[in-house]
Predict the structure of Iron-containing alcohol dehydrogenase.
Amino acid sequence: MKDFRFKVPQNIEFGVGSLKKLPEILKENNSEHVYLVSDHGLESIGVVKKVQDIVEAGGLTCTTFLDVVPNPTVDVVNASTKLYKESGATSIIALGGGSSMDVAKATGVLATYGGEINDYEGLYKVPGPIVPMIAIPTTAGTGSEVTASAVITDEAKNFKMSVISYEILPKYAVLDPELIMTAPASIAASCGVDALIHAMEAYVSNFASPFSDAMAEKAMELIGGNLRRFVANRKDEEAACAMMVGSTFAGMAFAWAKLGNVHAMSHPVSAYFHVPHGVANAVILPTVVEYNALADNGRYEKIYNYISEDKEPVIDFTPDMLVDEVKKLNKDLGIPSSLSEVGVTEDKIEAMAKDAVAHPNVLANPRQTNLKEMIALYKKAL
């Protein structure tokens, strides 16, 4: 067994109604004034007000930033940082999906250390702890509440940069399944497949360890057994709980094992064509699963058993069975079958491939990938 390391430095609260513990958590951190980062979509359905009311009922002050957008940009981060500094807040709540958490993490970095977010691109460039942060996911998908990265789009370069440092892990995560039970079916589907991909890519990663395997396997069990059920009925509390916990475990898995070609390829797709992250990942998944089959060391069969609807013992498993299963899963959930269906055009493939092959996730992918092969993968997914 090769050497590995891990730590679990966060405080995680799970449970239906656990949102009500927010004032208690804030007071533990001596924070009388919190800065809430979210978006107008969550405002429109009353989720933002729900959090504000809980905070203020605890006798605390809340300043709110709601201009988060999908694939958030450098300009959004700068606007958020400016308001945070002006507000006098001493902690941050990140409410939403990965985009809100990315903006909150980046805001915490700039509020603490200054400069531009581009200064911190790459691995471990954040010099120390940032503003105390509480992450509250409203989707079962990104796992951002337990991951050490923030992905921000530099529109000037059509490039999604990653700030990766364990210093930006949220200090707390509050997992309240009630918050995901109002999601539209399409969001539940794309976010759910994204969470599954986190677990799958971590499980076959070159950097996988017994710790990440444990998290990935439990995540695949929870998500694989409940994703279709949750998309069919978001009011199904048991399925919602399984998806929420599964997404978090998948986040823990890839925080330490990294991801692979699916995510390396999806970031340029989102940067160039503004395709939602979860949708891009889901569409690309079957192509990468097929490509990586050559490097399979027996883990494809385990993944298949977690996500297949057929629970009978498999005889004579072959990797193409997993390829077919992920295609079927996408179809069942109403996810497009090709990149062209979500607006991707062939003229950008070479530029996207150059960005993808330079992404650190490629190093974790179980099958080595050069530029020529990455171009071929995009063309196949198109």
User: Anything to note?
Assistant: Residues 185-381 form a domain with the Dehydroquinate synthase-like, alpha domain fold (CATH 1.20.1090.10). The chain has two domains: 11-179, 185-381. The CA atoms of residues 86 and 381 lie 46 Å apart.
